[in-house]
Design a protein that fits this description.
Largest sheet of chain A: 2 strands, antiparallel
Number of domains of chain B: 2
Strand content of chain B: under 5%
Order of helices and strands of chain A: HHHHHHEEHHHH
Number of helices of chain A: 10
CATH architecture of the largest domain in chain A: Orthogonal Bundle
Order of helices and strands of chain B: HHHEEHHHHHHHHHHHHHHHEHHEHEEH
Number of strands of chain B: 6
Number of strands of chain A: 2
Strand order of the largest sheet of chain A: 1-2
Oligomer: heterodimer
CATH class of the largest domain in chain A: Mainly Alpha
């Protein structure tokens, strides 16, 4: 047990040193890379390791007679967590999310320290000591709080009320609900039922299962399936349409959406927000092909009221591309990212 | 069976009369669903050689004879939208919400009474049986006062409709005309049954008569549930109309109008929601009484009452997210736009708030259970592991509430390099969220299991094996849930939706198998000490109040979301809302109105509780059952 706890304590100390390095900018946050694009288990795993590490550390310190009081354990862990989400996670997360996580962290700490009567008493004791002020030190501390707390409250209020020159926060609706139907080049398409006419099997019939089988899932490293190379000149049917879609994409779209379709094209950073990242599982992967068709055809200018604040510079591509070209480019986007369009079966 | 006495015969006749009263309105209305109320007129017209117009049902796609007028095209005028100097929509919102709060409460509490009364009847321990019976009686007493308020609020709601939205209400009642009288008659039947059930309590408290009394509660609940189903059909029709053509003309089949695409999921969701809400309110009542109690006896009674109400509420809370998931799935299947507006578009932020509230509910429940372990000798052994449960809950909670599109300033947006955070943004999709909520629920089940065995040591020969099996089962459950959450990122969205099934199955397996196994292991277990009812921390009671408040707030929020998803339609795609308020409120405004509704409800329910306490003060002393020294454990917990 002691050996196990010693390992835990070591993990805790190393973890704390690493975090301190990140806070003081000695170690860049991305020294240990956070994996992008999938279920972010890494962050939870790291925090879990810290929890185990701190448990080990606490055990060892107790064994050495240097135990940390429960009050400081709770406060310390919360401060650690706030620093972790501020300095470890990159790119930096917005304040709103940090506030949410910080609150969850605080609630969790309070639940822990008050889960039983004994711990709760231990946690409260330093607070009660200051309030009772039986010693000189506590008396001084009580006066300090008496003066500091109103000043802090005033400071927060002043800061909150003071007009700021920052741009206001925007609650942007990234995927507004599409209309029931859309009219492109004079033809009406019902979004719930329309199908990509190029998603076909060798017999020329619509076949999502067949086309899915020619896609390599993103997790496999975006390799091509054997004998399924769209750039093979002999490729026919679906693969040929993917190639044609690719050509259209690289002639028109990749300047913004990037050659990896990750929204980081040549012009991407001229815009705020940058263009959509198709490799993100939250974009085309969870939308029907007809949704993409509507967005490509109508562009940012065609966003509905719900799409406030309409922060999109996407051109209405129906003015530049034919219907067939739009369908083909969509086909290519799904093929390249390894995602399948959403269906409702 | 012994000699059938006159009293028994009378009670059987009374019960039969109730059943007949229940069936009568349905039987009376039977010709309507078959032919439509107006059908004979249409036949008559046909005989005279007039042309019969046929049209296609917007949802069922079947052909029917047009028997109703088209949905009115309203204008922003005093005829269609008469008003006070206030936003009519908010007035209606308030009236509707209050009616729904009370309606839910009075539908849920008789179900509780039925369960508790049944527990009292089947319990062999006489003292415990008496306590259960008294508890059920206390519940129905509270419900009776609330019932009158529900009816009053229903009247206010109808008057609000008639005064502020006359054209819309007239159209809706024309569509539902064949069943409007059934609703009214069932309300009468509900009132009658409730009064007989309540006032017959003392006269039918023993033997066979008690069973008849219990059967009456079943009839009462059947009527209540049918009433709710009928009311649900109106909102179902407004969201996903059926039984009418594109112009909104009624096609003569009332079953189509009732049985819309969203009716069944709405029914299930509301039953579970009402039960969880009712449990929360009663638990809060008990918590309030506990905190105000002056004697140990009172504290013990209300501690026990709070526990039972919480356990019943949570029993229905656990499947609630799954029922919600089914409802959303059906919404998506019905209209993709509606689903996206709800979960990815305009109303997505409200769903983040909802996730937060769900998380609070489960966190409060767990916290209460950990506190409750403090009143058991022997439960100390679990205390040191609680921090790991806190960790699991906090992780699940964080994943569950992380928005896909974050609120940020343009400067933060630029620093992040895109609309979605490349790492944490991935918590925003369904796969991660399913994992998060299932981890939370499984942890709640684990807390319950610890609570149930808190003061006991299993004496069965296979206890060691059983403990290992339980440990392995829970570990595998967590691994499976988390694995499926990760795997969901590698498969198409439509398949990913299906992954929720094994995740839910895993959680429910934990619930059913582990509860069963635990009960088997704890049969004849060695007691480390009794449950010391009343010796629970005050913090636990605040957790119960938190639970109830979160329920109330969440109900208000979800009702608002469900209603708002129609956007500018009174009846989706059939009847447009042309009032000046056909826009979606800001999140802040909606939250303020919800909070005001919650505040009003709690103030008014406190009044109801106070009224209940007046009756209690007048009750004879014998009605009060004292808390025995060695208090038996409630069947719900062990």
């Amino acid at each position: 047990m002691k050996a196990l706890m010693s390992i835990g304590a070591l993990v805790g100390v190393v973890g704390l040193l690493l975090l301190a390095g990140m806070i003081f900018d000695i170690i860049p946050s991305n020294t240990i890379r956070l994996v992008e694009g999938y279920m972010p288990m890494q962050m939870l795993f790291e925090v879990g390791c810290y929890v185990l590490g701190f448990t080990g550390l606490s055990y060892m310190l107790n064994a050495m007679g240097m135990g940390i009081p429960r009050f400081w354990q709770g406060i310390g862990f919360w401060i650690f967590f706030l620093l972790y989400i501020k300095y470890r996670i990159y790119p930096p997360i917005p304040f709103s999310v940090r506030a949410m996580y910080g609150t969850v962290g605080l609630v969790a700490v309070l639940m822990w320290v008050s889960s039983n009567e004994e711990d709760w008493k231990k946690f409260k004791q330093p607070i009660l000591n200051v309030l009772d002020a039986q010693t000189g030190f506590n008396k001084v501390l009580r006066y300090v709080y008496l003066i500091a707390l109103p000043i802090l409250t005033w400071g927060f209020s002043y800061n909150a009320m003071m007009p700021k020159s920052e741009e206001p926060i925007e609650l942007r609706t990234v995927h507004p609900a599409p209309p029931a139907s859309t009219k492109v080049h004079g033809k009406t398409y019902v979004l719930q039922t329309s199908l990509n006419p190029y998603r076909v099997n060798p017999e020329g019939k619509y076949d999502q299962e067949y086309t899915n089988s020619l896609i390599v899932e993103q997790g496999m490293g975006r390799l091509m399936k054997p004998n399924a190379n769209p750039w093979d000149e002999k490729a026919e049917g679906y693969l040929k349409y993917v190639r044609e879609g690719g050509e259209i994409f690289f002639q028109n779209c990749h300047f913004c959406h990037g050659d990896n379709l990750n929204g980081r094209g040549l012009h991407a950073f001229a815009f705020n927000p940058i263009p959509a990242n198709f490799t993100d599982p939250g974009t085309i992967a969870q939308l029907q092909e007809t949704f993409i068709f509507w967005r490509v055809a109508k562009g940012g200018i065609g966003l509905p009221n719900e799409g406030f604040p309409w922060a999109s510079v996407m051109p209405p591509w129906e003015q530049h591309l034919t219907v067939d070209e739009i369908w083909k480019v969509i086909l290519f986007e799904y093929w390249h990212t390894g995602y399948y369009p959403r269906t409702w079966d | 069976m012994g000699v059938v006495t006159r009293k028994k015969l009378l009670s059987i006749i009374a019960l039969s009369a109730m059943v007949v009263a229940l069936l009568l309105p349905i039987v009376m209305a039977l010709p309507s669903p078959a032919t439509g109320e107006e059908a004979p007129v249409a036949e008559g017209a046909q005989k005279e050689g007039e042309k019969v117009e046929k049209a296609r049902d917007v949802y069922y796609k079947t052909e029917g004879i047009v028997v109703g007028a088209p949905a009115p095209k309203t204008t922003d005028s005093p005829t269609d939208y008469p008003r006070y100097n206030f936003e009519s929509r908010v007035l209606l919102w308030f009236a509707n919400q209050q009616h729904l709060y009370y309606g839910s409460f009075v539908l849920a509490v008789p179900i509780f009474c039925m369960i508790i009364e049944f527990m009292g009847v089947v319990t062999k321990d006489k003292a415990l049986a008496k306590r259960y019976d008294q508890l059920a009686y206390d519940f129905i007493k509270i419900s009776l006062t609330a019932y009158s308020l529900t009816a009053i609020l229903g009247g206010i709601l109808i008057f609000t409709f008639l005064t502020l939205y006359p054209t819309f209400f007239s159209y809706l009642s024309s569509i539902f005309r064949p069943v409007m009288h059934i609703y009214a008659l069932m309300f009468v039947a509900e009132s009658g049954t409730l009064y007989i059930y309540y006032y017959g309590w003392d006269k039918m408290k023993e033997g066979f008569l008690k069973w008849i009394h219990l059967s009456m509660s079943v009839v009462l609940n059947v009527i209540g549930t049918l009433l709710m189903f009928l009311a649900n059909s109106w909102i179902g029709f407004m969201m996903s109309p059926a039984g009418v053509d594109e112009q909104g003309r009624y096609l003569g089949n009332i079953w189509h109008v009732i049985h819309t695409a969203l009716w069944n999921p709405l029914n299930l969701h509301r039953i579970l929601g009402n039960m969880a809400f009712g449990g929360g309110v009663v638990a809060a009542y008990a918590a309030y009484k506990f905190l105000a109690a002056k004697t140990d006896e009172e504290r013990a009674h209300y501690d026990w009452m709070g526990y039972i109400a919480m356990a019943l509420g949570v029993a229905f809370l656990i499947p609630l997210p799954f029922a919600g998931y089914w409802l959303m799935r059906e919404v998506y299947a019905y209209r993709q736009q509606m689903g996206i507006t709800l979960m990815g578009g305009l109303l997505a932020w409200l769903f983040i708030i909802q996730a937060t509230m769900i998380g609070i509910l489960f966190l409060s429940t767990n916290y209460y259970l950990w506190q409750a372990m403090g009143r058991m000798r022997g439960a100390e052994k679990y205390q040191r592991y609680i921090k790991y449960l806190v960790f699991l809950l906090a992780c699940g909670f964080m994943v569950f509430i992380t928005p896909h599109t974050m609120v940020m300033t343009p400067a933060e947006l630029k620093a992040m390099g895109g609309q979605q955070h490349p790492v944490l943004g991935n918590y925003g999709v369904m796969s991660a969220k399913n994992g998060g909520i299932n981890v939370i629920i499984t942890t709640t089940v684990l807390s319950f299991v610890w609570y149930m065995r808190g003061n006991k040591v299993s004496t069965v020969s296979w206890a060691r094996f059983g403990n290992i099996f339980m440990g392995v089962f829970f570990t595998c459950a967590y691994i499976n849930i988390i694995f499926l959450a990760i795997y969901g990122y590698y498969i198409p969205a439509n398949v990913r939706v299906g992954l929720s099934v094994p995740q839910v199955a895993t959680t429910l397996s934990c619930l059913f198998f582990m509860f069963t196994l635990n009960s088997m292991m704890m049969k004849g277990a060695k007691q480390m000490g009794p449950i010391e009812w009343g010796k629970i921390s005050a913090r636990s009671q605040y957790a119960l109040i938190m639970l109830a408040t979160a329920f109330t707030w969440m109900m208000g929020l979800m009702g608002y979301i469900r209603s708002s998803v129609r956007l500018f339609w009174h009846v989706n795609e059939i009847m447009r809302d042309n009032s000046p308020w056909a826009y979606t409120h800001t999140v802040g405004f909606a939250a303020n109105v919800i909070s005001a509704n919650v505040l009003f409800f709690w103030i008014s329910i406190l009044f109801v509780f106070w009224l209940g306490s007046l009756t209690a003060k007048k009750a004879p002393v014998e009605a009060k059952v004292g808390v025995p020294g060695a208090i038996p454990q409630p069947a719900g917990s062990h």
